[in-house]
Amino acid sequence: MTKSKSPSIADNSVRLEKLLTTLKRDGIGHTINGQRVDSPATFDTTSPVDKSVIAKVARGTASDIDKAAKAAAAAFKPWAAWAPEKRRALLHKIADAIEARADDLAVLECWDTGQAYRFMSKAAVRAAENFRFFADRVPDARNGQSLPTSDHWNVTTRVPIGPVGVITPWNTPLMLSTWKIAPALAAGCTVVHKPAEWSPVTADLLVQICHEAGLPPGVLNTVHGFGEDAGKALTEHPAIKAIGFVGESSTGSAIMKQGADTLKRVHFELGGKNPVIVFADADLDRALDAVVFMIYSLNGERCTSSSRLLIDEKIAPEFTARLAERVNKLKVGHPLDPATEVGPLIHERHYGKLCSYFDIAKKDGATIAAGGKSHDGPGGGYYVTPTLFTSATTSMRIAQEEIFGPVLTVIPFKSEADAVEIANSVQYGLTGYVWTSDMGRALRVADQLEAGMIWLNSENVRHLPTPFGGTKASGIGRDGGDYSFDFYMETKNICLAKGTHSIPKLGA
Ligand code: NAD
């Protein structure tokens, strides 16, 4: 089969215009029990490219969440009882439908978030893969262990926990939503999804796609709105048994408090300030490619981005000079242009926050070796120049705080022990990346890094069965493969007497 030509910016713009016409006319409502539901209040979702309004979006309240949670509760038992093969087939059908709409999903995501098409086209395909991967695990989801003793058989099994809440952030929203929703549905749970208020568009299309593919009403409900009302109400609702949350560490902490009264099980994927450590003996060309990719792809709005480069002081001047040259050449541009590498930041508030770090860096004594200013991009949106901070020390705010943009902080180190100490000196612990040709050192350092995921001589290459999650302020729990089912399911032990073992005779 010949590969079809990738679309041009003109093709993407034509596709987008058609989709925008419908969105502007109809707005975006909630989907509850398979039906569109509107709220009296709405909010605008705007494009970071030109600040134009994409659609009016229903602003969900506690009452909308209550309706959605009740719909999810009513749909739970019948959905959990579906035969595994039937559920597997339906999830595959959803994956097919996502693939069929992948170009629509990609251009909408670009327009709603500012992320570049080269990455969003892949994210749409990955969203389908998330469904496919968990579809194939459905038949084994309930499997457990056989733990016999001399007089009893113990058999463990897993059962879906019940209706769950999924709360997602605005960075790669479609990919992250499917990463949570697909395993929940595969486990037999029903879902109420509260997408981020800055990026509601693809969540709306996703729930429509699921229903068109045959998902029964009430199994996936989507309620739009703000964290402090719709989000909070979801975490407090008694019918919701667990909350899968991706977002900021401080929001995770708030959700834990909100969910305490109803004893919610929580799974948190939170912030990061991840180190990439480059030793002098590394393959420096490959390390350079990975360093650039892991902070400047996806606009740097990526939880696993390596936002701190810890560089062996012996090679720091030369490596940093090569790095600055690459950063200056990054193609900042329109997100629908397939050549674009960095698009506009998602929102005025995020843009303001990010730009404030240019002054913070200078005030703290760092050097701005590249970027450090806004960029006059097409549409006049929230563009910044990809930025490189050098001469940084670990106590500076640019070395401690998650900036979440195309901004890299370079910190030189003197020794292996020094590198590990700097790497671990932050509140976060999501990922770590190590570049060296000494395999003993690679494993030694990996063992000492405080992080949930470490890549040695590699960038963030994902394999879906592997555990995904963070330590410290970066999260609680793991996703991926069977780890996801540990969260969305309860483990139950069934104990059966083999014969007539002796039973203590009280009162005999
Ligand atoms: P955020 O915490 O501000 O918002 C995330 C979601 O939580 C939104 O849907 C929001 O409406 C909702 N929310 C806010 N307050 C709430 C409350 N009190 N109760 C319930 N829900 C509430 O995060 P963001 O700014 O949208 O996303 C960026 C953050 O997400 C970054 O810190 C990033 O590192 C993190 N993130 C982590 C991972 C990971 O896997 N560890 C992945 C992606 C993003």
What does it look like?
- The protein has 16 helices and 21 strands.
- It is an alpha/beta fold.
- The chain has 2 domains: about 10-270 and about 475-495, Aldehyde Dehydrogenase, Chain A, domain 1 (3-Layer(aba) Sandwich), CATH 3.40.605.10; about 275-455, 3-Layer(aba) Sandwich (Aldehyde Dehydrogenase, Chain A, domain 2), CATH 3.40.309.10.
- The strands form 6 sheets. It has a 7-stranded mixed sheet with strand order 13-14-15-12-11-17-18, sandwiched between helices.
- About 55% of the residues are buried.
- About 40% of the residues lie in helices and about 20% in strands.
- The mean pLDDT is about 95.
- Helix 1 crosses helix 4.
- Bound molecules: nicotinamide-adenine-dinucleotide.
- Nicotinamide-adenine-dinucleotide binds near residues 169, 474 and 475.
Looking at this protein, list some descriptive labels:
globular, Aldehyde Dehydrogenase, Chain A, domain 1, seven-stranded mixed sheet, binds nicotinamide-adenine-dinucleotide, alpha/beta, 508 residues, six-stranded mixed sheet, 2 domains
Compact summary:
With 508 residues, the protein is of the alpha/beta class. The chain is built from 16 helices and 21 strands. A seven-stranded mixed beta sheet has the order 13-14-15-12-11-17-18, sandwiched between helices.
